[in-house]
Design a protein that fits this description.
Blueprint lengths: L10 H10 L1 E4 L3 E8 L7 E6 L6 H16 L9 E7 L8 H17 L2 E3 L6
Parallel strand pairs: 2-5, 3-4
Antiparallel strand pairs: 1-2, 2-4
Length: 123
């Protein structure tokens, strides 16, 4: 489980990450990463798993797998970053090892040069 202080809850944070973040696509997922300048908060991570991925049971399974994988990778995210992981329909059909490989590759590419957002987020 992802620690509560790292969970993205506000729709404004999701929108900021998706609209202004660096987008990196892999066969099973897409990540959007933005670094908000002037924030020393812990990184926030959110997940988007649409109905295209499968039934509610399948979507929740994919979301749990992604949360578990992200918990182990929080250290690679800079403080003050917003990350949204969007699962693609193929995420429900691959092994956890393949999902982890795609997530690692996407995070490596996104964190190499994250987009910076100069405006602080509102509370």
């Amino acid at each position: 489980m992802l620690p509560a202080r790292h969970r993205m809850r506000r729709s404004a944070d999701f929108a900021t990450a998706i609209r202004r973040g660096r987008r990196v696509a892999r066969p099973t997922l897409v990540v959007h990463l933005v670094l908000v300048e002037g924030r020393d908060d812990p990184p926030l991570v959110g997940f988007v798993v649409s109905r295209a991925v499968g039934s509610a049971v399948v979507r929740n399974t994919v979301r749990r797998r992604l949360r578990h994988l992200m918990r182990e990778r929080l250290a690679v995210l800079p403080p003050g970053s917003l990350l949204v992981v969007r699962a693609l329909p193929s995420a429900s059909k691959v092994s956890s090892a393949d999902l982890a490989r795609d997530l690692d590759a996407a995070l490596e590419q996104a964190t190499a040069r994250p987009r910076h957002l100069q405006v602080g987020r509102s509370s």
